[in-house]
Amino acid sequence: NGNAGFQQVLERLESDPVCQRLSLKSFLILPFQRITRLKLLLQNILKRTRPGSEEEVQATQAYDALEKLIKDCNENVQRMKSTEELIYLSQKIEFECKIFPLISQSRRLVKRGELTALDFNNLSPKWKVTTRPIYLHLFNDCLLLSRPKE
Hints:
Protein name: ARHG5 factor
GO cellular component, one term: cytoplasm
Radius of gyration: 26 Å
Organism: Erythrocercus mccallii
Structural class: alpha+beta
CATH topology of the largest domain: Dbl Homology Domain, Chain A
Domain DH: 1-76
CATH class of the largest domain: Mainly Alpha
Oligomer: single chain
InterPro entries: DBL_dom_sf, DH_dom, Ephexin-like, GDS_CDC24_CS, PH-like_dom_sf
């Protein structure tokens, strides 16, 4: 989004009749769609093969290999999403000191959300309660608390 030249080239390519007005995203998703269609095709082949035959053994091996490939693809997609979340979060969060590297190969964001912190001021004769929003970011190896910049 930040590169205007790339956006212009992408728009020109996507509007080309050869691309059939499909977006870049659809071309990136296409291989995954084909893999899932192959899985359905192999399931139908397995239904129609004679039990105990050589064809069934080969179709089962192909199906198992395809299942492993799909699992690996899904794991890699999840890893990339996790890395993208870490990059986005590291751009949004400012640390007072940069001793905590947020982006790490083994770190992934498990859960995040907003909470309301209650501050009790017991210096005054009446208890005064003030609230402020805080954000929790639970990673697989640590918990990060942050607050919006004032």
